[in-house]
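To whoever picks this up:

The parser on our side crashed when reading a file containing two proteins. I've narrowed it down to the boundary between the first structure block and the second sequence. Both blocks are reproduced below exactly, byte for byte. First block:
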Amino acid sequence: MSKDEYLITDVPLKALTFFAMPMILGSFFQQIYNMADSIIVGQFVGSAALAAVGACAALTNVFICVALGAGVLVSRYFGAREYGKMKTIVSTSLISFLILSIVLGVVGFRFSYSMMSVLQTPADILDDAVLYLRIYFVGFPFLFMYNILSNMFTSIGESKIPLGLLIFSSILNIFMDLWMVAGLGLGVFGAALATLIAQGISAVFSFLLFLSRMRRYKSHFGWFDRKELYSMLQVAVPSVLQQSTVSIGMMIVQAVVNPFGTQALAGYAATMRVENVFSLIFVSIGNAVSPYVSQNLGAKKIERIKKGYHAALVLDIFFAVLAFIVIEALHTQISSLFLGKDGTTLAYQVSEEYMRWLGYFFIFMGIKMATDGVLRGLGIMCPFLIANMVNLAIRLFVALVFAPRFGIAFVWLAVPAGWFANFLISYVALRRSWPNDKVVPSR
């Protein structure tokens, strides 16, 4: 057995922990991109500029989602040692998504102002928000390339290389933020440009390292295969639809928050950054479960799948307790990182109330993500999609109906209920679909 195949050979808890920890650290450094922009802009420019950066967050997440999806098949072929098919999937997805990223980048740049206007972005930050978004779209192909290649690395059980690249690009981003925003006084433009340059360099390094890694697996492959593209899309489209719809839902929630004013939006944006940091821990565990399950399914080691699911739940409980302790002890200090000295009482109130509420319920997100990760790894996409749509519907209903009438707190009060409902639906589907040695679930 190759040392690359530890996900199908080592004890499940050990294998998942070893695999997931670099992904969790990577998620932290991924957020440093956005947090560095927010902290530096908030401290050196002001809370209105912070709100401008925050106003773009939900929209930009929509487009990142399109870069995900092909990893399930890469993991399955890797576990089955069908390296030719694996490399064909990799090549096909890179070519397809590069073309898509260029198209979406052009469209996004052209309609940035319209999109921010539709989201009811406050007039005093609209121009800065549009500027930030347009620079973001210029670097869209680099962002796509990096996300695709990170997904491919993790699909073959390699999570350390993406971590190293993230650490490098995050540190570079911080230094360039300080130089362009604090030193040169470029404001929101400097924050966006720093992020673009850091992501571009990271994407190029990722591509070169991935080419080197693929040379280990000697086999014939095709540069582009329509049949493999179709197989990939059968798994990728439901996942992309789910993630994109959720991000669109967050855009709608953003539109609910915007009429409460710039200071409420600044407080909301600050806690959204914090929520993303903790959420991505659980997202990373769920994303680690998917290639673990898919590799073991490809290797026909069915008995290891349930053990891996239980191991993921253990990791989720540990990090949920850690998140609660950190938020309860440091919620005021965390808010002040983003809001700075000019943050108003309203901004701090919104940030701290939202943050402390979520701290009690991150375990719901953890068990939801682990369960969804198993479903993705098995290729069971319909229940996965339905569960996440129900989650989104609960959050949107409460925010749209109650927040305008009874206050901004209703934007976040229903979030834990959505997470828990998502888990219940996914878990029922999973209980009915556990594979056995004779049956492999269809997509």
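<<boundary where parser fails>>
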Amino acid sequence: MKRFQDENKFLGSFANEILVKCPKCDSKSVVKKEPVAECKCGYCQTKVFECKHCYYKLEKPVYQYIAYGNPYCNNCYEQYEFESQLLKERPEKYKAKCPNCNFQEDWKPKVKKVLQNLEVKDGLVKEQYYNFPLWFQKEFNGNIFWAYNYDHIHYLERYIQAGLRERNSKVNYNSSLVSCLPQFIKEAKNREKLLKILEKWKK
């Protein structure tokens, strides 16, 4: 019987390199941690996205903006709410139309800053810094089974295939990656199917 002992690794233990789908060419690409060049303490890090297939590279997230407000119309004096579609530039003014009388006028709006494509609700698990879909993910009985990278895959594989799973009673007992896994990964009846998915990912 194979044995697994919890090593008290966090999900963040596997986050130095996260494999994602490139938004330009749909190829496997990576979001990786890199030190900040101008940092003097040596601890500051940023995340860089890079695709080696189409050479698309980002050194910081791309943001978009939503203009919104709750003004009183200067024509009919009724209060109304407005909210724009996603905008590429931060707006200083926004032309809104009163839904009561159709009068249009410019307002200085409140502005929400959002990651590009954050409004896209496609059900995919995404990397949080750039909001790109993870490369390794698959629907499984109404759940999404996913992994950041090959190290994460190997760790999950060791856990899933083990008949004896031992928890670690040291610090972080209830916050380790293993303790936070969803129930469908822990269930023995799913072992064979999940291992087949991981084996395919490794190839």
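After patching the parser it read the second block fine. The helical segments are 150-161, 183-186, 191-202. The longest helix spans residues 150-161.
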